[in-house]
Specification:
Strand content: 15-25%
Oligomer: single chain
Strand order of the largest sheet: 17-16-13-14-15-12-18
Distance between the termini: 22 Å
Largest sheet: 7 strands, antiparallel
Radius of gyration: 30 Å
Helix content: 25-40%
Length: 543
């Protein structure tokens, strides 16, 4: 028995099914549109929004009943696969993808690493992402998704993955082509003002208008403010204060995916739904050291661009015995202060604590942590007084990296540390006193830099905070309070360190949210879903 005939028979009985099949085609179209036009709104056209829209549209297409007798004359934009709409407030999508990795797009982190190791890159959400990254959409699946669409990926030594083209446009084109193929609609200049839950339909309603019918069979009302594409104005065209024409309207959807990233507008939508919201603070930022960089006698003055292969950094404040946060890794001296993986990881894992002290304090640096503490480094340095007595202290660093092949401290930085310890410019190791050598060991192991603030890392901006994970069923990325409302990406309280972790969060949560939204809307109309048959019967009874 054809699928559509079986469906109609299940809901109407054999006799009425026969009459429906012979009914005017226009009436059948009306019924089937109401049955199968499952409408999903994706709010936000960033990485997670576009990816969730693709996932939802592809899932709907795979579930669609396509009996030719009932569907052969439906327009493409009436088909289930086209009923995923992205509402984007600006004039372009995928803005962060474009600037990520300096325009190269750090699309993933090394997917050959064990999932548990990758999960260590998430200061918030590590536990909650475990199921998604192990089962629903593992990092290897994310890589295969892009490769299956013709994107060649490469992995660099630090684990960052980029398209082989070294161009973010490759990723943008791939995503938009996949969205177009899945028949995702993207509405630009459509700023969402709020989401409300549609009231249950009542038998006493006397309004028979199309809008009321649309409202009654939908789950959510989305209020948007749209701006005309031509930017026509309400005022005289010669007026300098003219503003674009804007219109407000309500759209109705069966499910909504909130993918607004870290935008304030998205957070206002969340708060309007009375959902628990974790206040946001910046994450992934560099540290400013104004006096140490700007003053001629500052430690970092003239050292911008120097990279230390392996260092330990600890952020300290005067009234606390223990550091706020301690991290290890490569360290980079900049024109404003300090950056590099060690600082960025500190900024992510210590985001809230650093915000509380207004990003001001002392950064204690160990430039060679693999060699141990002050006494260990002193012993290593003191050997040079007998092994290399004729060498100038400021030109020869005896401290090596773990592989014993190169100096642990770059030459210009070493020279500055030697001078700061009190050595004369031409002093040799033979004339070094224990006091001077111990001073140098202190500068290497407990070097203190005054931190005066923070800066954004390149053009990237990541926040800690968002929708509380306690509000979300992470298996489906669905709201526990509002069935049919889904979340993905940075709008939830999940964020990662630099290196591809945040995009992996976008792809994985976007995939789960999109598929879950598709499953949700189909279940509203599927004849075998318990408790949902009345909606289908109501649509068919109109024939």
């Amino acid at each position: 028995m054809p699928v559509a005939v079986a469906f109609l028979t299940a809901h109407t009985g054999p006799s009425k099914c026969a009459r429906l099949i012979n009914a005017p085609h226009s009436k059948i179209i009306v019924a089937t549109r109401r049955l199968f036009a499952c409408k999903i709104a994706v709010i936000g056209g960033g990485a997670s929004g576009i990816f969730s829209a693709i996932a939802a549209a592809e899932s709907l297409k795979s579930k669609q009943i396509t009996e030719p007798l009932l569907f052969e004359n439906l327009r493409d934009d009436d088909a289930t696969g086209s009923m995923v709409t992205v509402l984007e407030a600006t004039t372009a999508t995928l803005g962060k993808v474009k600037i990520s990795g300096g325009g190269r797009c750090n699309v993933l982190h090394d997917t050959s690493k064990p999932v548990n190791e990758i999960l260590q890159g998430y200061p918030r959400g590590q536990k909650e992402l475990t199921g998604i990254l192990h089962k629903r959409f593992p990092p290897s699946t994310a890589r295969e998704w892009f490769e299956s669409r013709g994107v060649e990926l490469k992995t660099e030594s630090d684990g960052r993955m980029f398209p082989a083209t070294d161009s973010s446009q490759t990723i943008i084109d791939t995503l938009l082509q996949a969205a177009s193929k899945a028949n995702v609609q993207i509405h630009y200049r459509s700023k969402v003002e709020g989401i409300s839950i549609c009231p249950s339909p009542t038998t006493s309603s006397t309004d028979s208008g199309q809008e009321n019918k649309e409202r009654e069979k939908s789950q959510f009302c989305v209020t948007i403010q749209s701006r005309s594409k031509s930017d026509t104005t309400d005022s005289d065209s010669s007026s300098q204060t003219a503003t674009p024409k804007r219109s407000t309207k309500e759209l109705y959807f069966d499910a909504v995916i909130l993918a607004t990233g870290s935008t304030p507008a998205g957070y206002r939508i969340v708060q309007g739904l009375d959902l628990t919201f974790v206040p946001t603070v910046p994450s992934l930022f560099t540290l400013n050291a104004k006096s140490e960089v700007g003053n001629e006698d500052g430690l970092l003055n003239g050292l911008a661009g120097i990279s230390v292969p392996f260092a330990e950094v600890a952020f300290c404040v005067p009234d606390q015995k223990k550091p706020i946060q301690t991290e290890e890794g490569p360290l980079l001296i900049t024109h404003h202060g300090l950056s590099g993986p060690a600082v960025l990881r500190m900024s992510a894992f210590g985001a809230r604590e650093l915000a509380k002290v207004n990003y001001k304090g002392i950064l204690r640096i160990n430039w060679a942590p693999h060699l141990g503490k002050v006494d260990d480094v002193f012993d290593e340095l003191w050997q040079s007084t007998t092994l290399r007595p004729k060498k100038q202290v400021n030109k020869f660093c005896p401290l090596l990296l773990p592989d014993d092949k190169e100096s642990a401290i770059p030459r210009r930085l070493w020279s500055t540390l030697v001078q700061r310890a009190g050595f004369e410019e031409t002093q040799t190791w033979a004339t070094a006193s224990k006091k001077l050598v111990r001073n140098l060991a202190m500068e290497i192991c407990r070097c203190e830099i005054e931190i005066t603030g923070k800066s954004t890392y390149k053009d990237e901006f990541v926040t800690a905070g968002g929708v509380s994970l306690k509000e979300i069923d992470m298996k489906a990325m669905q709201s526990k309070k509002y069935p049919g409302l889904f979340f993905c990406g940075e709008v939830v309280n999940v964020d990662g360190v630099t290196g591809g972790y945040n995009f992996l969060n976008c792809w994985s949560t976007g995939y789960v949210a999109g598929n879950s939204a598709a499953e949700f809307v189909v279940s509203k109309f599927h004849p075998n879903t318990k408790g949902e048959g009345d909606m289908a019967k109501q649509s068919l009874s109109d024939l």
